[in-house]
Amino acid sequence: MARSRVIAVAAACTTVAAAGALMITGSASAGTISGTLYRDTSTPVARWLQSNAGDSRASVIRTKIESQPATRWLSNFNISTIGSEVSSYVNAANAAGQIPALTVYGITNRDCGGASSGGAPDLTQYQTWIGNIARNLGSQTVVLNLEPDSIALLTCLNSSEIAARNQALRTATQTLKAGNPNAKVYLDGGHSAWNSAGEQASRLVAAGIASADGFYTNASNFQPTSAEASYGRSIISSLNGQGVSGKRQVIDTSRNGGASGDWCGDDNTDRRIGQYPTVNTGDANIDAYLWIKPPGEADGCRYAAGSFQPDLAYSLASTAPNPPSPSPSSPAPSSPSSSPSSSPSSSPSSSPSLPTGACGATLRAVSTWNGGYQGEVKVQAGSGTPSGWTVSWTLPSGSTVSQVWNGTLTSSGSTVSVRNVSWNGNLPADGSTTFGFIASGTPGTPALSCTSP
């Protein structure tokens, strides 16, 4: 069975990079999520770099892996500490105005006793653990990939154990959604070289996908994104045929930029990091390309599952092109554009006079490079924007916007519009907020309009 073992109990989160990524241009997210994925800076790869700055592999690993956002794995089953772990991570992401993504991995008898075995001693304690996660998810968008391999891998369970697991997953999904109605919960969809789409869809229905937002695939393998997208469409079609509609896919693209096949990434040097993590997929069926399985963390073949191995990381990244600079996945943490707060500006040099009407907007180029730039737009309220705001402008010739954070992008020809996201739309009189974007071409000096319904 073609599959890859996932992170062990001791594994923590890691940030991952995609090189050779395809940047989606023009339209907005297309799926149901908009914004910027959160990049954690306290990860196994980051810690390795701090201790091995002089290593010959460090530059490549830092540039192509450590620089990018990834999911954080909740794999250490500890009922007393899980709440604070989740709260700290989610609060940090919210403070940065970014989307936290978590992979929940603690179900009883996980990995069927394989290299990543462990989890809750029983399903009752599992639900207590899930409840502690749910109570600490905040109220903003958070992505949750629930229990890798829990649905695609059932060979070690008898029929009553399968029924109990399905019930546990249904309850967990409902608990997480109740804890934060803005949480996006995705169930295990296996991958395109494992179960058939019809079989996987039936398993997803049994496990309660009706209450979830969709399913994720490829967390346990290296199948090409195109194959996973096709597989996802087939699952969605089968779900529709079984009376479950409106579900979408997340694809793990962390290690699918090279050869596919043999499941064990520890032993295969033909793997490459894949597409950059983004929620701007351009595909209405796909909510995100995520880095679920961190590059450089072992599968349990040559090394202990979940351990960070710099030679694996270097092998995955060494021949991949560099990501654009600055990273398209996240603004600099210190940039005002990363703050979700909406407050009056204190910088006279960047504050326009109070606009007449609802709001006004000003654009500055944060940084430029050959063929592109990062822009920041300050939205300044006049009378206030209780129903939200939209900023529009005409791009200079040859310029296209590829990604936006702290806003939702739409485009029509050379005209682009960015609307607020849920947390930064209601600006009080004289309040302000910012959003950022990555664009090709040169910044120019376009005239921006700001309106509020």
TrEMBL record:
Compositional bias of kind Low complexity: 335-353
Any GO MF annotation of the entry: polysaccharide binding
Chain coiled-coil ranges: none
EC number(s) from the headed UniProt entry: 3.2.1.-
Record keywords, A-Z: Carbohydrate metabolism, Cellulose degradation, Glycosidase, Hydrolase, Polysaccharide degradation, Signal
Signal peptide: 1-30
Residue span of region Disordered: 242-277, 315-358
Family per record: Belongs to the glycosyl hydrolase family 6.
Protein name, as recorded: Glucanase
Domain CBM2, residue spans: 352-453
Entry superkingdom: Bacteria
Top EC category: hydrolase
Any Gene Ontology biological process: cellulose catabolic process
InterPro entries: Beta_cellobiohydrolase, Beta_cellobiohydrolase_sf, CBD2, CBM2/CBM3_carb-bd_dom_sf, CBM2_carb-bd_dom_sf
Organism of derivation: Actinoplanes italicus
Biased amino acid composition, Pro residues: 321-334
PROSITE patterns in UniProt: CBM2
